[in-house]
Amino acid sequence: MINDDLKKIGLTENESKVYLALLELSESTIARISEKSKVKRTTVYLSINSLKEKGLASSIKRKNKTLFFAEDPRKIQEKEEERRETIKKIMPELLSFSNLIDKKPKIRFFEGKEGIKEVFKETLKYPKTELAGWFPDQVYWLGKDFFTEVYMPARVKNKIWIKALAPKTKFNIELSKEDAKYLKETRFVDDEGFNVKVEIILYGANKINIISYTEEIGLIIESKNIFDSLKSIFDVMWRSSSER
Hints:
This protein is α+β, with helices and mostly antiparallel strands and 244 residues long. The protein has two domains: 2-71, Orthogonal Bundle (Arc Repressor Mutant, subunit A), CATH 1.10.10; 106-239, Endonuclease Chain A (Endonuclease, Chain A), CATH 3.30.870. The protein has nine helices and nine strands. It has helices at 2-8, 13-25, 30-37, 41-53, 74-102, 112-122, 144-157, 170-175, 224-239, and strands spanning 57-62, 65-70, 106-111, 130-134, 161-167, 184-189, 199-203, 207-212, 217-222. A seven-stranded mixed beta sheet has the order 3-9-8-7-4-5-6. The chain has a two-stranded antiparallel sheet with strand order 1-2. Strand 1 and strand 2 (65-70) form a beta hairpin. The longest helix is centred in the middle third of the chain and has 29 residues, at 74-102. The model has no long low-confidence stretch (mean pLDDT 87).
């Protein structure tokens, strides 16, 4: 219906009805417009004032009566073209503001086991890339089935390699025996001061996952600066760590 189309270009339901009535009646009174449009008289006044502001209606005095009429419908097209030109003109400036926003870190927060699973699944969106990270002993806190039957097979299928820095513990050494199977390389930090409590994964050129199993929370941070800084630290530690 034409009413629906008029609403798509910014007119309200009542404005559409009143405008169509004005087009049909030519110069007319509020009473006749109300009758024709089936809109209450008080609302007709409001709608006409709004249409005037939009350049779609006008009024004239004849014999002490105020008559209202619709402006040429082609003005709708003119207004739309003006709007497009305005948008085109201001778009570069709007995009410059957008770029400033993009430079700010974006942080998403997840809770509970299901939330943390989503944090892991996010890394699967970057096939044929490499993950790098620091890992505590709590890798199976989410359940061994999730890792061995869901996450790691999907990571291998997507050809996503992983470099892992981990404390040199019996559990981690045993776990590393399956590295080749899961496209993984583990190096160990044999230092009591390396007391990792959270898991940190770097991926996608600007993303950082931080997972605290004891607090059951996960974060996904998008920041090129933070990513590059942590990757630099990781690379230094990787070069100075042992394979066994």
